[in-house]
Amino acid sequence: MKIDKSTVLHIAHLARLEVKEEELNQMQEDLEKITDFMDLLNKVDTTGVEPLIFMTEEINVLREDNAVESITQKDALKNAAHKDSDYFRIPKVKG
Amino acid sequence: MYKNFAEVKNAITSGVSVLEIVHYYLQNIEKNKECNIFLEVFSDSILTQAKLVDQKIKNKQAGRLAGLVIAIKDNICYKDHRVSASSKILKNFCSLYTSTALQRLLDEDAIVIGRTNCDEFAMGSSNENSAYGHVKNPLNLNKVPGGSSGGSAAAVIANTCTVSLGSDTGGSVRQPASFTGTFGVKPTYGRVSRFGLIAYASSFDQIGVFANTLEDTALVTEIMSGKDSLDSTCSSKQVEKYSVFEKTEKKKIAVFKEVLHNEHLTEDVKNSFSSLLNNLKNEGHEINEISFPYLDVLVPTYYVLTTAEASSNLSRFDGVHYGYRSKDAVGVEETYKKSRSEGFGIEVKRRIMSGTFVLSHGFYDAYYTKAQQVRRIIKEKTKEIFSNNDFILSPTTPNSAFEINSVKDPIQMYLQDIFTVHANLSGNPAISLPLFKDKDGFPFGLQVVANNFFEKELFSFSNYLVKFRND
Amino acid sequence: MKDKYEVVVGLEVHAQLLTKSKAYSSDLNEYGAHPNTNVSVVSLGHPGTLPVMNKKTIEFAIKLGLACHSEISSHQYFARKNYFYPDLPKGYQITQDKTPICTGGFIEIKGENEGQKKIGITRIHMEEDAGKSIHDVDVYDTLIDLNRAGVPLLEIVSEPDIRTSQEAYQYLTEVRKLLRYLDICDGNMEEGSLRCDANISVRLIGETDFGTKVEVKNMNSIKNVQRAIEYEVTRQIEAIEKGEKIDQETRSFDALKGITISMRTKEAANDYRYFPEPDLPPLYISVDQINEVKKTMPALPKELFVKFKTDFGLSDYDAYNLTDNKSLALYFNEVTKNTTHYKVAANLMMGEVKSYLNELGVEIDLFPISPIVIAKLSNLIAEEKVSKTVANQRIFPELLSNPNEEPIDIALRLNLLVESDENNLKSYVVQVLNENKVEKERYQNGEKQLIGFFMGQLMKVSGGKADPKQANSILRELLESSK
Questions:
Q1: C41: nearest CA in chain B?
Q2: Which residues of chain B have pLDDT under 50?
Q3: Minimum distance, in Å, between the CA of residue B276 and any CA atom of chain C
Q4: Do C146 and A76 touch (CB under 8 A)?
Q5: pLDDT band at C429 (very low <50, low <70, confident <90, very high)
Q6: What is the CATH classification number for the domain harbouring B368?
Q7: Do C135 and A63 touch (CB under 8 A)?
Q8: Which of A91, C187, C360, C426 is deepest in the core (most CB within 10 A)?
Q9: Cβ contact, residue pair A33, B411, below 8 Å
């Protein structure tokens, strides 16, 4: 289906992706192609059909309310790009 | 040597150490470097593990998988080892835990030799979407190994491990198995725990196995399967002994007309498949050619649902508490946008965008709900088919492996999965058997699909087919 | 101007639950821990991790639903609410969208003109909390602590039935009381275990359409919710009177200035793209399960309120105050098992006991005197064996130091029993009249109000023990007769 550039940018923002000026045309084209492909679904008559929500047959899968210590603070912070000994850190907006 | 677990066990019985076997595999990894199969060889830990297993064997305390050397796809978590989903966004990420399925194998004394290249976040059908370069098919370096588990498939055929683990969301184990002449199985949805498998599409993903023999796929699947308290969607159904094959009686086999006469089939594939069906018919099996009018909508349905789930599953990669963070980003918004845009490859971004689109306000009903409805129709139809038939047979892929860089259009690439996605949409277990070769000698597979949780029947019948084909 | 308008307020309350572990993972749910120590790979949203539902959360939700007379859903599932925020590790929150665990129900508050008013509940659903972003501690960076990420929450959404800021205050007080009675949440707004957002609009009286709704956030006490509503209502009315349009927006309450400020940012309204959570299978709740929970329900404030009023004949005021706090109510309930002098006991509770607790800033769990002893003391007072003053000012403090002593023993030991012997009283009266001849003359010359003065003196010389009634009649008799 037809997707205008402002929609592309809106979707990109929702997904926190940057689409630069020079990439916009290609992304718009790709999305239109992909959604055209998805529009093939309209061939199928789905009147009165319940959407399939779960693939698992399991129900009421519950856990006892027990606290288990699993990882240390050090491990928790280990993979962070920017941190101190206690916190994850993100640089603030300048000014 | 050591192409399968039986050969490994024989060697061990005759005095070969696991350490020696590992060295053999390590040499083959070196020899096949050009294929770019491994993103990382766990050289230190594998040698340590091998020595430990040798000790256990000596003390007669070894598990069922002692001697088995596995390669894992780069989306399966292994404690204290790096895992990146072949993406820049997880470049130096080190996992803090091991996936349940893998742990069950380790508990039986299997050891891990390295992590294999794959399409980024399992999104692709040729392993050309990796941030770390594409994988070359060891059978022909100009061809793709298939995807997304291209590396794992290549690892097995290149004799760099005994078996390997991959993941299958739309065919990502079966299709590369077809292209590399290996066995590749996807269990029933919920049969194997997904805890520790980096999620692509939550209601489609399953961990699968590659091997050079059917016995190995069955044994590994059996050991991995079963309830896991860490995965709520994992089935509590009993796990049977898949590794013990039963005798096969006459079977009722369904074949889709739309597959048999599909325009995308190459001559070789068409002929080999029809020929096999005739032979089976002559053996007394019932071949039912039925109409499956939904073949054309399988892939689009798959794309709506998997991109939607993926767009959400990949939101956690935001540069904040782990993973790649863009160097120049200042402030929260920039951190997100720059890290994600720089960290993800183009195919991943396309799918995230598509998924976000189909879930967005105004489009949800037209796309997402619609696709869920179509999925129900497909599942019900499949159930109906299995009430009258034992198996569904088809070629795994419409063609054998294609040349690297030859499929540029995303939609054309998506259609590579046309025969495999069905089993992911309906949750059925499916396997690719390396029964065929095209006129140039390149392999392509036969796909067998069974009813949900009928893995034992699937493996038993596959065993029959392999023997049947060889006779 | 204001009288032309009707205020329409709906409140969304988030209650952090007192479970041991988190909503979908087994890490510890504990307030005040060192940052990033109560986390797991699941609550950190590490790749490959999956949620597993805590059964306690469901039990707590059912309890609250039962207490609010809501309907409990027999079939429900979870949903993902997708948005990006640094303290939301997965980039989505697992919540309930189309299938809340409870629908309908109400909370009763005191109506404007006597009687009770029911504030309707639209829904109650289960979800998880996010971590904490700290912006104002470090100059360069925002600090993130994920201890709170994944803590289970119940979201309680009221119907827009609230019409005044006082009703809002009462509603929140009742909700907090209920949560504490049920032991599912400690209801502490200052610590953030209870949070409230308000949706506020106004319309002309008689109008059936709703006015534009403004969401107000960032009110960290029940009082502040009331203040915020008052300010916002005034702001909206003034704007409408000026002919301005009310923007549908989110505003933040500034507690220092007592005003609401627009939180408008450049971005458009968030599209949360809700879809069913594929990693958590559906829940089916049976009638049996609900009945099991019913059995474990504690007595609720309303029940105890009615009991104290009807069974013990207490006033609304007394019954309300005694049921304000669960442990206080249960304590009082114990007291009533050992005395039938309910009003006297109630006074003792609301007076000396409460003062003690307030002064020390503790709950009744730390009160040293047992309910039986308080009952016995009440009996002494009611039977007029000691005066109220003596009980409060002499016996009660003594009991605090010697909680195991019997009140009657203390009274005997300290010689505090009411003096009702005729002869002893007479001698006290004679003593007082002799020591205050001037006042006696003044009384006899007409200043009858001096009787109070003489009673005071009488109490002094008798050490507070004189039986007031008897003493009074003897006093009058002697005053009249010695003219």
A1: B96
A2: none
A3: 39
A4: yes
A5: confident
A6: 3.90.1300.10
A7: no
A8: C187
A9: yes
Element housing B273 (H / E)? helix B267-282
The DSSP output letter for B300 is H
Q: How far apart are CA C349 and CA B188, in angstroms?
A: 66
| Sheet of strand B206-211, all strands in order from the earlier edge strand to the far edge | B38-41, B111-116, B69-73, B163-168, B206-211, B183-186, B430-437, B443-450, B391-395, B252-256, B286-290
For chain A, give the longest Cα–Cα distance.
Answer: 58
Range of the domain at B451: 1-471
Task: Please answer yes or no on whether C146 and B95 come within 8 Å at the CB atom.
Answer: no
Q: Using CA atoms, how far apart are residues A74 and B328, in angstroms rounded to an integer?
A: 26
Alpha-carbon span B401 to B136, nearest angstrom? 11
pLDDT in tens, C279-317: 999 999 999 999 999 999 998 998 999 999 999 999 999
Sign of CA dihedral C360, C362, C366, C367: positive
Determine the residue among A88, A89, A90 to mutate to test chain C binding: the one whose Cβ has the most chain C Cβ atoms within 10 Å: A88
DSSP states of chain A: ----HHHHHHHHHHTT----HHHHHHHHHHHHHHHHHHGGGGGS--TTPPPP---------EE---------HHHHHHT-SSB-SS-EEEE----
CATH 1.10.10.410 domain span(s) along chain C: 422-481
Q: Tell me which chain C residue has its CA closest to the CA of residue B75.
A: C48
pTM of the shown model: 0.91
How much is the CA Rg of chain A, to the nearest whole Å? 23
Inter-chain CB proximity A62 and C53 less than 8 Å: yes
Closest residue on chain A to B336 (Cα): A16
User: What gap in Å lies between CA C378 and CA C350, rounded to an integer?
Assistant: 13
Share the mean pLDDT of chain B.
96
Place of tokens 């369904």: B254
Closest CB to C46 among B75, B322, B360: B322
Q: How many CB atoms lie within 10 A of CB C207?
A: 12
The number of residues in chain B equals: 471
Best C275, C277, C283 member to test B by mutation, with max B CBs in 10 Å, is C275
Of A58, A65, A70, Cβ closest to residue C54? A65
What are the structural domains, with CATH classification, of chain A?
5-42 (1.10.20)
CATH code of C422-481, in short, is 1.10.10.410
**Distance separating alpha carbons of residues B135 and B33, to the nearest angstrom:** 10
Measuring CA to CA, how many Å separate C287 from each of A2, B219, B424, C75?
50, 44, 36, 12
Q: Which residues of B touch A6 (CB under 8 A)?
A: none
Asked if residue B243 lies in contact with residue B208, where contact means CB atoms within 8 angstroms, the answer is: no
Q: Give the count of domains, chain B.
A: 1
- The residues of B annotated with a catalytic role in the active site are 73, 148, 172
Choose the closest CB to C48 out of B197, B309, B311. Answer: B197
Angstroms from C270 CA to nearest CA on chain B: 10
